[in-house]
Amino acid sequence: MYDFTYAKPTSLPAAAAALAADAEAKALAGGMTFIPVLKQRLNKPTQVIDLGGLNLSYIKHEGNTLIIGATTTHGTVAASAAVKAAIPALAELAGNIGDRQVRYRGTIGGSLANNDPSACYPSAVLALGATIKTNTRTIAADDYFQGMFTTALEPGELITEIHFPIPAKAAYYKFANPASRYAMVGVFVAQTATGPRVAITGAGQNGVFRHTAMEKALTTSFTPDALTNVTTPVELMNADIHGSAAYRAHLVGVCAKRAVAAAG
Q1: What CATH number should be reported for the domain whose range is 59-263?
Q2: Cβ atoms within 10 A of the Cβ of 119, count?
C-alpha cells in the first residue's frame, strides 16, 4: 500500500473536520473493503481517519424504532437480544454475512457507505424503509441508494445511525456465493405500516432496488403464491462468471417466495 498518515479522532466534529480539510482523506470503519483496496494499491489516500473512537457502536429500541449506531459490527447486530425481539430478520441477515472474522470487524455503517451491489444490509434498509442519519442530515432509504457503489452521501459526510421502523413481519433469503458468501441474489421482504416492501440485492445492474411488481402482488395477498406470475426483467439483471442475467432473474422469484414463506 501507499504511505498515508493515520488519525483516530474521539469526536464526530473532529472526524468530520479532518475529512473536510483534506479531499484525499478517507474514513475507516471496519476496513473489510477498504484495507484490501489499500493493499492492492487501488486507492491512495493522504490520510486515513479511523472512526473507531467515535462511540457509535450501540443498539437502542425506542418506541416503534430500532436504532443502530454506524460502527456497530455485524456480529453485535446478530447477537443482540433487542434486534432479535424487534426485527429478527435483521439479526438473521447479519449473522450470515461473510465469515466470523468479517462479522466481528465489519460495520453496518461501513457496509451502507460502501454500498456494494452484493451486500446484504442495503436490502434490509430499503425494504424496511429505514432512514440514515449523518452528521449533517437524515436521508430516507429510497433516496440514499443511487447505484452501484453510489450513495447520496456528500464528501466528508459520515453516517452516525440507522433508524429502522419495526415491521409487522419480515424475512431475508439469500442465495449466497459458496466462496465469498456474498449474495448472488438476496431478497428482503417486509410488511410495513405503509404496505409490503421488497428489496433485491446481488442481482441488479445498478445495485439494490425495490421490486414494485412484487410489492403490488403482495398487497393483495402476502403469500408465496401471490408471486407466482410476477416476473423480473432479465435486462435489468447483472451477469458474471457466477450466473447469467436469466439465472439471476429466476433466482429473484425463487428467493422472494421463500422469504415471504419465512415471514409467515
Answers
A1: 3.30.465.10
A2: 24
